[in-house]
Amino acid sequence: MITYNGTQLIEYTKALADFLEEHNYNLKHIAVELNGKIVKRADYARTKLQDGDVLEIVTFVGGG
Predict the structure, then answer these.
(1) What is the mean pLDDT of residues 42-51?
(2) Relative to the CA of 40, which of 7, 19, 27, 29 has its CA 20 to 30 Å away?
(3) 9 pairs with which residues across the strands?
(4) Would you list the domain boundaries of the chain?
């Protein structure tokens, strides 16, 4: 099971890039933290999510 933005999800063992695509994230407007460390965009495809991972995704919104 992984924890995603404070909510526990079923076991998920795909790449981070797949998870982000399935959840319709715009990769240019997010920051991803996995187990307390920021993940670089270039590493999304090779970063595998595993049981026990804690994933936090922050979306940037412009305004003024």
Answers:
(1) 96
(2) 7
(3) 2
(4) 2-59
